[in-house]
Design goal:
The protein is an alpha/beta fold. The protein folds into two domains: about 1-170, Glutathione S-transferase Yfyf (Class Pi), Chain A, domain 2 (Up-down Bundle); about 170-295, Rossmann fold (3-Layer(aba) Sandwich), CATH 3.40.50. Helices cover about 50% and strands about 10% of the residues. It contains 15 helices and ten strands. Strand 3, helix 8 (about 135-150) and strand 4 form a beta-alpha-beta unit.
């Protein structure tokens, strides 16, 4: 059904039938190569100078940061880089453009494919064996969309940061700080992760491995999880609908008495944080890498 809907959207888009609230997003993608309408040359302005200068031109891993983590939720990008540095991972960054996911979702396949081809060229130039992502939408795009939608022989292995870290935990390469207090949290499954690429176990296993974390499940979880309301261009075209959906999700978290909602998608974090604020409820919304980085010790 998802493929049929996307094909229908693409047909409508090609004929000029799409919500005009998306015009800002479309303009930003074509002119700035990101969804935040920010200068491309400032994409890595959050990166400490000493880290930027130490990055090799080629490495085993490429960390694909994504638009929102580069411009809006730099806390996610910073935490991911700090984790990679603490674990002495051989990684580098590339001259990335938007992964293309938002544009495939709204039917602008041409722009999405241009972005994807640019990114593949840069990944190849870095000589990497793996691409690491910390965004669920980027993960879906690089792992699934690139393989299905591009007529290219792709030779890239895509890992979400939670998958990489889960393997490190199993190999006892991760040292986590001990705490006495217990914090009750819920994990929110982003649609792109749970519904489209079956990524729901690694984030949960990581949370369970963190001392002092008690993971509770919301009523709707994994493949049955409710959307945060922000995907598919809704947050740009119909923000009132997005807020209604995200508020429903926050209410589910309130119903099980957790203090934090953890996710792996900056768009989900943004949407759920807005709902928590609008409802006046004391629930903190964080990304998994932020939580892990707080407890992770350098190896």
């Amino acid at each position: 059904p998802a493929k049929i809907v996307e094909a229908f959207k693409a047909e409508l888009f090609s004929k000029g039938f799409y919500p005009k609230g998306l015009n800002t997003l479309l303009e930003s993608g074509k002119e700035k190569h990101n969804v935040c309408f920010e200068p491309h040359e400032e994409r890595f302005s959050w990166l400490p100078r000493e880290v930027k200068e130490s990055l090799p031109k080629q490495a085993k891993y490429v960390y694909f940061v994504g638009c929102l983590s580069s411009y809006r939720f730099t806390n996610i990008a910073k935490a991911t880089v700090e984790i990679l540095e603490k674990l002495d991972v051989d990684y580098t960054l590339i001259d990335e453009w938007c992964c293309g996911s938002p544009f495939w979702r709204i039917g602008d396949f041409k722009t999405a494919e241009e972005m994807a081809m640019h990114n593949l060229k840069e990944i190849s130039r870095a000589g990497a064996e793996y691409v690491i992502v910390s965004c669920a939408d980027c993960y879906r795009a690089l792992k699934k969309d690139y393989a299905e939608k591009l007529k290219e022989d792709l030779d890239i292995k895509v890992l979400h940061i939670s998958e990489l870290l889960q393997s490190f935990v199993k190999e006892n390469k991760v040292k986590l700080k001990k705490v006495e207090s217990v914090l009750r949290v819920a994990y929110h499954d982003p649609c792109s992760a749970a519904k489209h690429v079956d990524l729901y176990h690694p984030p949960r296993e990581l949370l369970k491995a963190i001392p002092g974390i008690e993971l509770l499940e919301m009523l709707h979880n994994k493949k049955g999880s409710f959307c945060c309301g922000a995907g598919g261009g809704i947050t740009y075209a119909y923000p009132d609908v997005a807020l209604k959906l995200s508020s429903m999700r926050i209410q589910e978290a309130l119903n099980i008495g957790v203090k934090q909602v953890i996710s792996i998608c900056p768009l989900c974090e943004s949407s759920l944080s807005k709902a928590s604020e609008a409802l006046g409820k004391p629930i903190e919304v964080l990304d998994l890498v932020e939580v892990l980085n707080q407890r992770l010790e350098r190896t």
